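Ligand-bound model needed. NAP.
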Amino acid sequence: MSRPELALALVGFGHVGQRFLRLLDEVADRLDFDWRLVAIATRRHGCAVDADGIDADRALATMEGRLSLERLDHEPQQRSGIDVVRRVTDVLADEASEGRLVTIETTLLDIEQGEPATAHVRASLEGLAHVVTANKGPVAFGYRDLESLAESVDRFFLFEGAVMDGVPVFNLVRETMPGVVVEAFRGVINSTCNYVLAELERGTPFDDAIAAMQAQGIAEADPSHDVDGWDAAAKTAALANVLLDAVITPHQVERTGIRDVTAADASEAVASGRRIRLVASAARHGRTIEARVEPELLDGRDPLANLTGTENALYLKTDLLGEIGVVQRTGSVAQTAYALLSDVMRISRRFREL
Ligand SMILES: NC(=O)c1ccc[n+]([C@@H]2O[C@H](COP(=O)([O-])OP(=O)(O)OC[C@H]3O[C@@H](n4cnc5c(N)ncnc54)[C@H](OP(=O)(O)O)[C@@H]3O)[C@@H](O)[C@H]2O)c1
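Prediction:
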C-alpha cells in the first residue's frame, strides 16, 4: 500500500493538539498519508467521536470560541479521555486491526503518577491503536511496560515531542544511531529556568522573569513545575528510561530547583567567568542509574553555560561516537506539533515498508 488513510483520535485538544491539526493542513502537500479526524477528547470542553470524520475547521473554531465540542453533533456521550479511547477503538476496530488508527495524546503532565495519560496510552495500544504523545508522563512513569505492550501488539508508541519540542532527541538515537550505546547525558532542558537564570544575570527580578515566560505561554500560571525542577525531572526520567534503559520515575531523580538562586548569585558567577544553569544529567554505572536535576556553577567554556534565553541543549556520552550534542535555539508549540507529525509520518512510512 503506498498512501494509507489514518484515522486520528486526539486525546487532549489544547495548544499542542490544535496546532497539530492546523499543521496537517499547512503542510498537506508534504504528507505521505491521508487522514480523517475521528475523535477529540478534552476535560472541560466536551468530547466528540465520529467514525465518519469530524470537520477539523469546525472543531478548531469551536475551541477558539471557547465552546463545547458537543455542539458539533457527533457522539457526545463520552465524558473522559479513557471513554473516548475505548469507544473509538471499538467503533474503528477494523481500521485498528489494519494499523490505521492513531491516538494523539496531548493531555497535561501529572507529576504524581503520569495519569490519566498512561491509561490513555495503554487502552489505545490494547485496542490496537498506535500512540503518539507530547506528554512526558507516560514515558517518564511507564516507558518499559508501555513499550513492551506496544511491541506485543505490533504497534508504535512514539513520544518525540516530550523533550525539547520538535528537536529530534529520541529519534536521533533510535533511528540514526543503530548499535551505539548511550552511557550518560547532560543538558539544559527547561526553557523557563534557563530564561530566568539568564535574566537574573542582567539584574531582572526573579518574579518579572517568570511573568515574562508566562506572558509568552511558556511557563504555566503555576510555575512551580518549572521552578522546582519537576518538569526537568520528568524529562530526565523520560530520557533515562529510553536512552539509558533505566526504569525510573521523576521521583527517583535527585532534584533541586532554582527557587533559591538569587540575582547576587547569578552576577557573582558572571563576574568570575562562570554561569549558573539548571543542569539535568543521568549516567549508568553498571546496574545503577544516577539521575539528577540541579543548578550548577559552570565554567564559562562549558557549552551549557552559554545557553541564553529559552535555549536548550542536550549532550550524549556514547561509546562509539564520543560526545555529541543537539542545541535548540528557539522552541515553540509549532515545533511540538511538528514532533507529533514526524511521529505520525513514522507510522505511515510503515505502510511503504510492508
Ligand atoms: N505547550 C508546549 O509548548 C509543549 C511543549 C512540549 C510538550 N508539551 C506537552 O504537551 C501536552 C499538552 O500541552 P498543551 O500546551 O497543549 O496543554 P493545554 O493547552 O493545557 O491542553 C491540554 C489539553 O488536554 C485536555 N485534558 C486535560 N486533562 C484531560 C483528561 N483527563 N482527559 C481528556 N482531556 C484532558 C485539556 O482539556 P481542557 O482544556 O478542556 O481542560 C486540553 O484540551 C502537555 O503534556 C505538555 O507538557 C507542551
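Residues 11-17, 41-45, 80-81, 106-109, 116, 134-135, 161, 165, 333, 336 surround NAP (CB under 6 Å).
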